Amino acid sequence: MAKQSGPSQRQLRVGELVRHALMQVLTRETLPDAALQKALISITEVRMSPDLKIATCFITLTGGGDTAPIIKGLASQAKFLRGRAAPLLNQMKYMPTFRFRADESFDNFARIDALLKSDAVRRDLDGPQTDEIAEEATDEARPDLGADTPNPEGA
Known about the structure:
By secondary structure, this protein is an alpha+beta fold. The protein has helices at residues 9-28, 34-38, 68-76, 78-85, 105-116, 119-126, 131-141, and strands at residues 41-48, 54-61, 97-102.
């Protein structure tokens, strides 16, 4: 049997259920941590462990900002959040432990976008293609027109 390269359908489904439950808790509950009360937190993804006992929650802050104090605050309130999310996830056999991480995928997308819009890439894409380069490419693509074949026009 081949090893799976990604999460199973079950992991994806449960991760989405946990994400929705946590978002409900974060929008409805007042958390005692002052940093969490002021922040607009979005949970972009929840990745479940194969045994569904650990939920790694990736967060971003709406409007940007430093996620380190928010992650620290969420980690300190993880048991509280777990208790509030439990009734929303009552179909699960085990209530997962929450771990919080910063979602850096948007930063990576922005970095790639900036790279694609850079002058170096634009210069490579818009570079002048001379007739010599086009002729060489045509000659290489048609090996039947090599030097050892007779020239049909001049014969």
